[in-house]
Amino acid sequence: MTFKSLFTTTAIAAALSLPTFAAATDHYPEKPIEFIVPWGPGGGSDLLMRLVSKHLETELEQAVPVINMPGASGTVGLREASRRDSDGYTISQIHEGLLIAHHSGVTDLNWDDFDVVSMMTSDNSVIVVNADTGWETLDDMLEDVTSSPGEYRMGVTLGGIPHLWAVQFEESTGTQFGYVGYEGTGERLRALAGGHITVAIEDYYSARAFVENGDLNVLAAATSERIEELPDTPTLKELGHDLEFLVTRGVVVPKGTPESVITTLESALKNVANSTEFKTDIENVGGTVRYLNREDYTAYLERNDAFIENNAHLLD
């Protein structure tokens, strides 16, 4: 083979190979997309992300099965997600817990080890207690807890969001609890209803069934405004504590995912967030749709990462 013919053959092969990748991404998605939720079934992340999955399936016309991978403050599933191929066929979910786990030394992973797509939801958090305590108001609880430091047990995710919240709550109220660690919301609420712990800070929807059954009492809302379903329950700010406990949940993909794939997912998730049906579904489970596009969500994560880094010492 002459140099000229070799060059021509190589050039043709290279030219033919170029559109192959483009075609693959142009027709994305062509198969199911696995959605790794790094928390167990029954908690806030699981419930809300299953709704995201349901509506995303309709938007993309492909199955988006949820894979629960709990463990180590959510970092087991995220570690797996970070190792997956960056082809758009694995997505995952993060919230502020990853930032806390990173800065408290639980994991070397952080939000910027992924490519950000969109923020989708936020929670309505409440201060909830076992009903057998007889506490009906926050003052009832503070009176008993203040007089018996360390006696009452608060359920947290050690090194996670509830842990930081618990410390902030103690500092604001002048209280001291004994901490008991649980991996996720569902496990923590079952322990609370069973009397194994006394108090927890949880999203309202996850706790609602226990509240309606009379197992738990809600003492305060940790939101900027009163929760619509709890019009008679004051916020922490109304009670003199400048606290708001917010969990936002967004979608990320493995680092290096093609830009065209991220753009497709971002557009699809925006359509989901703007859907009346999605908003109704999220509100029915006690959540709030809070959509941010890729750029704005990245800026949000950068700001919160800096705040958490400066306050991680509270978890020591």
Low-confidence parts, pLDDT < 50 over ≥5 residues?
1-23
Strand arrangement in the largest pleated sheet: 2-1-3-10-4-11
Number-wise, the strands total: 11
Characterize the biggest β-sheet: 6 strands, mixed
Tell me, briefly, the overall form: globular
Question: End-to-end span in angstroms?
Answer: 70 Å
Derived from helix and strand composition plus strand pairing, the structural class reads alpha/beta
Organism: Vreelandella venusta
Family: Belongs to the UPF0065 (bug) family.
InterPro entries: BUG, Bug_dom1
Keywords: Signal
Description of the molecule:
Helix content is 45%, strand content 19%. The chain is of the alpha/beta class and 316 residues long. The strands form 2 sheets. The chain has a 6-stranded mixed sheet. β1, α2 (44-60) and β2 form a beta-alpha-beta unit. α2 (44-60) packs across α9 (259-274). It is globular, with a radius of gyration of 23 Å. This is Tripartite tricarboxylate transporter substrate binding protein. Keywords: Signal. It comes from Vreelandella venusta. Residues 1-22 form the signal peptide. Pfam families: TctC.
Give short descriptive properties of this protein:
disordered N terminus, 316 residues, 6-stranded mixed beta sheet, alpha/beta, 5-stranded mixed beta sheet
Spell out the blueprint of helices and strands:
Elements: H1 3-26, E1 34-37, H2 44-60, E2 66-68, H3 75-83, E3 90-94, H4 96-103, E4 114-123, E5 125-130, H5 138-147, E6 153-156, H6 161-173, E7 178-181, H7 185-193, E8 199-203, H8 204-212, E9 216-221, E10 248-254, H9 259-274, H10 276-284, E11 287-292, H11 294-311
Parallel strand pairs: 1-2, 1-3, 6-7, 6-8
Antiparallel strand pairs: 3-10, 4-10, 4-11, 5-8, 5-9
Helix pairs in contact: 2-9, 4-11
